[in-house]
Amino acid sequence: PHDDFRLSRKTHNIFAMASRIASQIVSAPFVAHKNGTNKARLSAAKSAFNAPMQAKAVNLTSNSRVQSVTMAAAVEFTTKVFEKEAVVMAGETEYIVRGGRTLFPLLSDAFKNIKTIGVIGWGSQGPAQAQNMRDSIEAAGLDISMKVGLRAGSKSVAEAEACGFKPEAIGEVFDVIAESDLVMLLISDGAQALMYPRILAAMKPGATLGLSHGFLLGIMKNDGAEFRKDINVVLVAPKGMGPSVRRLYEQGKEVNGAGINASFAVHQDFTGDATEIALGWSVALGSPFTFATTLEMEYRSDIYGERGILLGGVHGIVESLYTRYTTQLGMSKEDAFKNTVECITGPITKIISTQGIDAVYKGLNAADKKIFMTAYSASYMPSKDILMECYEDVHSGAELRSVTDAVARFDKFPMLKIDQTEMWKVGEDVRAKRVESEIPMNPFTAGVYIAMMIAQIDVLREKGHNYSEVCNESIIEAVDSLNPYMHARGVAFMVDNCSHTARLGSRKWAPRFHYNLMQRAYTAVDAGAEVDPEMEAKFLSNTVHNAMAVCSSLRPSVDISVGAEGGKSTAGGARNY
Fold this sequence. Notes:
This protein is of the alpha/beta class. 54% of the residues lie in helices and 11% in strands. The strands form two sheets. Strands 1-2-10-9-8-7-6-3-4-5 form a ten-stranded mixed beta sheet, with helices on both faces. A two-stranded antiparallel sheet has the order 11-12. The chain is globular and about 65 Å long. It starts with 8 loop residues before the first helix and ends in a 6-residue tail after the last strand. The N terminus and C terminus are likely disordered.
């Protein structure tokens, strides 16, 4: 409902044509005009639409479908404004910048060449980042103009005004892009894929293109296109949905540093201060700590992660377990919901958030530990099978193409609600009567959930991702951002507060996990499969437990509060590793 670029089929075809000749656009010379108009740049963009289409098939064979295992390496960066800190996670050194409102006075140096910031789009991240940036700039006393770029006639104009942006601070998309020194591009991934030639054409030389997702790089690689050489390209990617980014920022006004962690990357530094701009942006969003990555590693881990345990995977788990518990184990519908969704979003999430993944297992009695590990042993490989396929689809570009194709079909096949089945209707009544202390800790559910979480982590490590990225994309984002939303109002409230890319991915991959768990994991348990001692030992000795303890120590002890149907619901918690 908040997407500002719902394109008609005709418009889609026009932009698809432009995306195929993006390399012509980005290589064209651009001239800065003192009067700030964007006519020359838009004229160059328009000429692209009149050029003959140079169709080019997406080459999915350039990247091997089975990628070799690579070792993670620290991403180096240099900053003169903020304090760079080395941290050791499970024996590997990484570099971070701690956040907090005490750093706001440094924003004047980080943004010394920024006079206008344009926030483009009003979807999942737009409202949160626009308000956080505005509030931080005001708190720092900076003379920087904030603009919001929306398409003419967008319903989001009223929403932006309701969030405190005056009519004169809201403009047409390409006008705002043309006058901004920092363009925070927060439109949907599908819209970025179709519109990036015009977006790049509209930017003034020396400006900074700010992304919160590396998706665009993947699309441009598929198209054989490159970013203009006379701009900065940076990324700041909060590890949580937009509403979480805003809610924890607001809580951070009482507890300094409360917020959602973020990764940052500098893909292109034309002006020499791109790193400072990116770190300033992250600090202004309220990130407790910011870790370094690359655009490519970010989009791989992010798109993969939301299809796995963050959204699609957990959806597949609870649906499959609900069916198992009601049809095979004779549970009532209410008890089945409590032993699946409520168990994961309640006690399991709380324990992982406050004490770590392995604490869930260690807190069980001997009999329940055996049940946990039986479920874990049976579920790990069926989960990893799908997760490995998913990662390689993302890496090859196939999954990105799937997203853009689905967006192009929205006029005929829109996304519909995903919480209309019996399970989620039962959940509405269960949540209304919930007593937090009475939510059960089901060891079988815990074993299945943690098997998928560890399998997701292991795939990322095998593919060369750093621990900071692994922990944030597969653990922290789940327990401190997303699960609280499912706990509050159900699966649709969690999934559909995210981007189109995430929503599409969840809908596509949840049934795959559901099928594999039902067909391979649960049938193995029913056939008498025993605990795998080697798998148990690998779980308990997994170095991610140490890395997660370090990540956890870097953020404040603040629970995110999420409004439930009947009041307040919280999850996550004070870290106590």
